[in-house]
Amino acid sequence: FLAMAARYKLWYNQVARPDLLTKLQLKNVHQVPRIEQISVSASTNVTTSQLNHPVPAAFALELITGRTAQLTRVRKGNARYKVRQGFLEGAKVNLRGEDMWNFLDRLVTQVMPRIPDFNGLSSKGFDGNGNYALGIRDWGLFLELDSQHSNLSNMASARGFGVLINTSAKTDEEAKLLLSAMRVPFAQSEQGEQ
């Protein structure tokens, strides 16, 4: 994993950062936007009668990211769905440093090409503050989960993954330039609308 992580970090430092410095017309290299953190989360929609329902999601996140997952709880209960405040809901992992670069590399080079009929990511995932969120429905796109099919039999109840890429960019346009420089593929029809 170190070779892959170093490859993407090296790409940012030697190719993307100088390119963004000229495109954004910045005076200092330290003003160039950077990826600060990637949060990967998974939640399940299993009934509350199964007490260990977020465990497969946490196990899958640990296999994919190589980090220990934190279990998440419901913040606000909802009687319609028979969910109470404090019930276990899913799991999440926050990635920084080498783990972040490693995950981004695998997401762009291994997972996205395996998505059927993939034409690029939508620009609607930006939140207005320079962060980008995307969802991945199919757990089987990750190579790390192929050998664990029998252990993850409960994954049919999972909703999928949520990936949030936090950047230091001030605007969505800067963040899109940063992610495009990091080879994150956006849909062609939306790239012309900048």
Protein architecture, described:
The protein is an alpha+beta fold and 194 residues long. The protein has a single domain, classed as 50s Ribosomal Protein L5, Chain: A (2-Layer Sandwich), CATH 3.30.1440.10. 32% of the residues lie in helices and 19% in strands. The chain is built from five helices and five strands. It has a five-stranded antiparallel β-sheet with strand order 2-3-1-5-4. This is Large ribosomal subunit protein uL5 C-terminal domain-containing protein. InterPro entries: Ribosomal_uL5 (IPR002132), Ribosomal_uL5_C (IPR031309), Ribosomal_uL5_dom_sf (IPR022803). It comes from Haptolina ericina.
Give a topology summary.
Blueprint (H helix, E strand, L loop, with lengths): L1 H22 L11 E10 L10 H11 L4 E4 L14 E8 L1 H15 L20 E5 L21 E10 L4 H10 L6 H4 L3
Antiparallel strand pairs: 1-3, 1-5, 2-3, 4-5
Helix pairs in contact: 1-3
Note the beta-strand portion.
Answer: 15-25%
CATH-assigned fold name: 50s Ribosomal Protein L5, Chain: A
Number of helices: 5
Characterize the main sheet.
5 strands, antiparallel
Mean pLDDT: 83
State the total count of DSSP E strands.
Answer: 5
Spans of at least 5 consecutive residues with low confidence: none
Q: Can you tell me the CATH superfamily?
A: Ribosomal protein L5
Under CATH at level 1, the class stands as Alpha Beta
Order of helices and strands, N to C? HEHEEHEEHH
